Structure formats: structure tokens, C-alpha cells
Amino acid sequence: MSAIVQAPVTSLAGTGLGAWRRLAFARVRRVWRTSLQFRTVAITVVLSGVGVMVIGGYMSVVIGDNLFDSRREQVEAEHARATLLAQDLFSSALAADQANQADLEMLAIDVQKDILSSTASPGGTGFALLRTAGQSTAKRVPTTTTRDFPDVVTDELRDQVAQNPGQVFLQSVTLPTSAPGLVAGSLIEVPTAGQYELYLVYDLSDAQSTLNFVQQTLALGLASLVLLIGAVTYLVVRLVVAPIRVAAETSARLAAGQLEQRIPERGEDVIATLARSFNGMADSLQQKITRLAELSRVQQRFVSDVSHELRTPLTTIRLAGDVLYDQRENFPPATARTAELLHTQVQRFEVLLADLLEISRYDAGAVELELEPTNLVRLVEDASESMKLIADGHGSDIRLVAPGGYFEAEVDARRIRRILRNLLGNAIEHGEGKPIVVTVDSTATAIALTVRDYGIGMTAAEVERVFDRFWRADPSRRRTIGGTGLGLAIALEDAVLHEGALEVWSERGVGTCFRLTLPRQRGKAMGSSPLPLRPDDTSTPPISLPENPRGTTQRDAAQEGER
């Protein structure tokens, strides 16, 4: 039971630790990306640390090699002296060749004492006098070793010593105490007893202690140097970055519209020159922006005033024109045609004035939305129905495709209906009498519709300008519906006001597709559009689409269920 309970606790602890690590890494990465000061100091400290490690490692190796070489030379010299001493003692004591075995044993002990007492180097840990193998002399010097002599003499070392009389051989070893050591060996000739190998073992703990002390001193000194470099870099970067940070904050305030913000000017250095140049640029921009803003206000007021002032005479002209238009049957043919032209152009003039007033409101920022929950499918049905007569006159069939989903959205129904009428009007105008397909779909966060025609289409250069005011793709083409050239510009403003997007795809000879994407709730992210901008049927228009008796939608039953 305890094991079963403990398992999820461990898992949760591991999960919490992993989340904490990810959070810490994310914070460090964010600071790295946003702080020039932190990034500069970190790079300097890291590179300095790498350089210091390389230098410290090199110095440590050099010092260690020098200490070892010095100790090796000292050991080699001492062992050579010990070899000469042992050789002299044996030669002088056994010159008469009358020593018995007991004398040889006592002589070996005396040699050991004399050698150990004559060794001036500290750290000596052992003495050994070993008979060389393969000899048949009658008399023998007994094998002599000190009590603390370690078992470190290898067969390879003994072979070298036995085969090279008169030379001293050294071998690095590790003593039983885990301390480093050196074994020195040489060959001596004992009269009447043959050849013997003399070995001395030296403890190098003193040299290792010295090296450790030097390495610790180097590590502390170099670490202090890195910290000092980091501190100096921090202070220097702070002096340099602080004015840059002030400049960045000032430029951000300028971008936010606070045109009076300036950088303090101190000194005569490069930073002061930058501050003066920046302030001069800000003054120039403020003057130009103020002048342009005033000019824009004058222009907007002029358009608004002209539009309002034209309404009164236009109303009079329209009333008089309506009277003439109603009596046109009593006029001669030429006069009747004139009355008809007057009636048509007055209507177009009224629409143009209304569009100019709407554009001036957008330019002045005086437009407000009247949001309400709206079913976009029903809105498309109403707009399609209002454009049906015009579409029939051009030979186009408006078809609605609504595959299903969340269709309720908070929008200004009047403005969305105006967007639809503009898009449908353009599709009818340029659709060449082919079907026009309106598709509606949505997700939990966004709602979208596309208006697809299979007409003449546009080039890439024309697509770039399709939302410009008073722009026409083909000025020579006769306009049959009577647009003002402001419809798509107003439609784009309506979409942006809803925090949505109005986009267009078109190819010459293939057709055009406009896509309107809106958030289901204003102020919330809408994510990706539920419908693709480039339609799947880019080759030919559909031959037939399933239609209900109303001929507008495929999801009436589904909507009834939703309601």
C-alpha cells in the first residue's frame, strides 16, 4: 500500500522540478534576449573564464613538471652517491676476501644504516638490497630491506638495473599511502658475493603538497581575476548602456505619440553627440508630424463640410430630378433620356457623398460599432437576396455554402451587410455571368466568409492596389452597377474596426476570392481563419451545387436545431 501511495508523490516531485527548471531556463533566455548589459557581461565573463582556465592549466602543468624534474634530479643524485657509498663499503671491507657469512650479514646492516643516515632528501621511505638472479657464488649478502619498504619494485625495473651496471634507473610509482613516489635502482659489485641491486624509494608527498598549494593559489587568484573582470565589465557596460537604454525608452515614447520626449544632453562625447542628433531628429519629426496632422484635420474637415454642404442643393436637385423623371413619358425622346440620365447620376452622387462622409468619419476616428449577436449565415442570405435582381441581370447565380459550425458572432450587422454587398457587387461586376459562391464557416474563436467569382481576375500588381480609394483595375471598363470606387476601401475599414481581416486572392483568367475573417468576440484573439484564402476549385466553376428549395443554404435544418 505504501509503495502505491509513494509512486505518484515522487512523480509529482519530479514534474515540479522539471517545471521549475524550464521556468528558470525561460527566464534566463528572456533576460539574455532583452538585456544587452547582461549579455555583454556574460560573454565577457565566459570568455575570460575560458582564457583564464587555459592559462591556469598551462601554468599548473609547467609548475608540476618543474617540481617533478627538480625532485627527480635530486633523487638521482642522492642515489648515485648512495651507490658509491655502498660500493666503497663493500669493497674496503671485503678486500682481503676473508669475511665469513656472519660478517656479510653485519656488513649489509652497516651499509643500510650508512646509506639511510647519509640521505639528505626528505621523504625517503625504504631501502632494499636484493641479490641479482642467476648467480652461483658461495658467499651471499642476505637480502636486506627496511620494514616500511613498499612492494613497488617491478620486474622490468630489475631487468634494466641488472643489465646496465653503473647506471641509475628511476621509475614513478604510487605508494601504498596513495602518495606519489620514485623508485631509484642501481647495480653494485660485492667482492666474493657477486652482484646486488640497491633500491631506494622516495616519497614525493612534499612535492605534491607544494604543487597542490600552488594550484589552489592559482585557482583562487584566477577566479578572483575573472570576478574582477566581470565587475569592471559590468561598470563599463552600465556606463555605456544606460544612455542607450534612455534613448530606447525615449524612442518608444515617441513612437507611442509623446512627441515632446527628448534625451538629456550631457558632455561632449559620442553619447552626447548621439543625444543631440536624436533630439534634432525628434524636433524635425515633431514639426512634420504636427504639420501633417493639422493638414489631415483640415482635409478631413474640408471633405466633411463639403459633403454636408452639398446635401442641401443635392436634395433640391434630386427632388426636381424626380419630378422630371416621373414626367419623362410626356417629354420628347431626347428630353426623356436626359431626365433618366439626370436621375441615375443624382442617385450615384448621393451614394458618393455618403461614402465620402463615411470615409471622413474613419479618418477622424469617429466611428463606433453597434455590436450584437448575429448569425452570419442569415446575414449572407439577406445580402444575397438583396443582390439577386442585379445578379440575375448579369446572368450570375449566387450560391451559399455553409458546412456547419459556430455561426453566432458579435458584429455590427449593418457594417457586415455593407461589406457583403460591396463584395457581391464586385463579384457580379467582374464575374462574367458565371456562378458566384459564398462560403461561410467558423471555429470556436473566429468566423469567416469567402466570396468567390470565376470572372476575369486580377494580376498580382492589381491585387496590391485593390483596396486603394478610387482605384479601378480597368478604367476603360464600363461600370454597370455604378460603384463609387470607395466600396472596398470602406469594407476594409469596417473589417479592421471589427479587429478582423479582409484579404483577396486573384489570378488573371481564373477569378477572384475575397475572404473576411472576424473574431467571434471583439477583443479576443481569433486565431487562424476557418476558410482558406486560395480556393480549391481554381480551374473551373462548379457545375452544380446541392440546393434547398430556397436555393441559398445547405444547413437550414441544422440551424433550426441550433435555435
Q: Topology, please?
A:
Layout: H1 2-34, H2 36-93, H3 101-118, E1 124-131, E2 144-145, H4 155-163, E3 169-174, E4 180-190, E5 194-203, H5 205-255, H6 270-326, H7 333-364, E6 372-375, H8 376-386, H9 388-394, E7 398-401, E8 408-411, H10 413-430, E9 436-442, E10 446-453, H11 460-464, H12 487-497, E11 501-507, E12 511-519, H13 556-562
Parallel strand pairs: 7-9
Antiparallel strand pairs: 1-2, 1-5, 3-4, 4-5, 6-8, 9-10, 10-12, 11-12
Any key phrases for this structure?
5-stranded mixed β-sheet; elongated; Beta-Lactamase; disordered N terminus; 14% strand; 563 residues; alpha+beta
Task: Describe the protein.
It is a single chain. This protein is an alpha+beta fold. The chain folds into 4 domains: 33 residues; 115 residues, Beta-Lactamase; 92 residues, Orthogonal Bundle (Helix Hairpins), CATH 1.10.287.130; 195 residues, Histidine kinase-like ATPase, C-terminal domain (Heat Shock Protein 90), CATH 3.30.565. The protein is built from 13 helices and 12 strands. The strands form 3 sheets. A 5-stranded antiparallel beta sheet has the order 2-1-5-4-3. A hairpin with a 3-residue loop joins β11 and β12. It is elongated. It starts with a helix and ends with a helix. The N terminus and C terminus are likely disordered.
